[in-house]
Amino acid sequence: MSRTLEQRLSGRVALVTGSGSGIGRAISIRFASEGAALVINDVDEKTALETRQMIEKLGKKAIVVKADISKSAEVEAMAKEAYEKFGRVDVLVNNAGVSGIPYKLIDLPEKEWDEVMAVNLRGTWLVSKVICKRMLKQEPLKISTLLGKVINISSIAGKTGEQTVGCYSATKAGIIAVTQAMARELGPKITVNAICPGFILTNIYLNKEEVVMAGARIFENIHTVGEIPLKRIGQPEDVANVAAFLASTDSDYMTGQAINICGGIAFH
Ligand SMILES: NC(=O)c1ccc[n+]([C@@H]2O[C@H](COP(=O)([O-])OP(=O)(O)OC[C@H]3O[C@@H](n4cnc5c(N)ncnc54)[C@H](O)[C@@H]3O)[C@@H](O)[C@H]2O)c1
Q: Is position 83 annotated as part of the catalytic site?
């Protein structure tokens, strides 16, 4: 059956964490433009409301649920609100994440380790646990035998330990392991895949002075644009394109995979 892109996600409900900014916002807008209703989550309500406004301008439905994904009570409340409003979640995108302050691992304060782990790895697991339990109880949509899809935003830094962002790398490697384990545990009812972005221009490099420096260092010293085969830094929409494919029935025979979207800078 042929479908236009506007129809590809019609009738679906997607929950995207950290969708007040960057990659999460681009994914939400792309999903909405393909017909999905959105649950916009962020710890920053102001930016989440801006994303909702952009989606409403497309004539699509969206609600905002403010929650810190590292806190189980807030995650439970978010799931309750999403299911009360829409009755189902077909696609979960675990996107919210923080980069942390760059340190060599031998200098990294324990507090910094715990905070980055709590959001990136614990948060991804917590939201998946709470939402997938509910997904397993919902009826499949007519267009698929699957009950739902999970898309985890990892990183190419999860495939090699990058210097000065070792804790971040560890969280992203952990997300790939969680993706593979959950793909085995939840098949054949739910697919679980990961996207590993390379260098994507977002606020993640701009929030803190140290991170601006880290971002600049990464761009200039570790991987210059010239080293990227496609010769440009990625845009959030580059990631959203692949997320939309993973959310659609076009990817129904894929699970447990970790796909690089990196302009060719990483090959594994
Ligand atoms: N930008 C890149 O180059 C790049 C590369 C690889 C992976 N990623 C990953 O992509 C994801 C999105 O990052 P981005 O680049 O769009 O950054 P971003 O800073 O623009 O967006 C991250 C969003 O997550 C939200 N957030 C942070 N902590 C949260 C929490 N505890 N609960 C709920 N929301 C929270 C922030 O408020 C923000 O809106 C992250 O997981 C990041 O690690 C980004």
A: no
Segments making up each domain of the chain, as ranges: 5-204+235-256
Residues with CB under 6 A from ligand 1: 17-18, 20-24, 41-44, 47, 68-70, 95-98, 119, 123, 153, 155, 197, 199-200, 202-204
Q: At a CB cut-off of 8 Å and minimum separation 6, what does 150 contact?
A: 91, 92, 93, 94, 128, 131, 132, 179, 182, 186, 190, 191, 192, 193
Distance, CA of 60 to CA of 58 (rounded, Å): 5
Distances (CA, A) of 246 to 103, 109, 170: 34, 37, 24
Angle, nearest 10°, between helix axes 22-33 and 45-57? 30
pTM for the model stands at 0.95
Kindly tell me if the per-residue pLDDT of 211 is higher than 50: no
> In the CATH hierarchy, which top-level class contains the domain 5-204+235-256?
alpha beta
Question: What burial class does residue 4 get, using C-beta atoms within 10 Å of its C-beta: 0-12 exposed, 13-18 middle, 19+ buried?
Answer: exposed
- Give tens-digit pLDDT for 249-258: 999 999 999 9
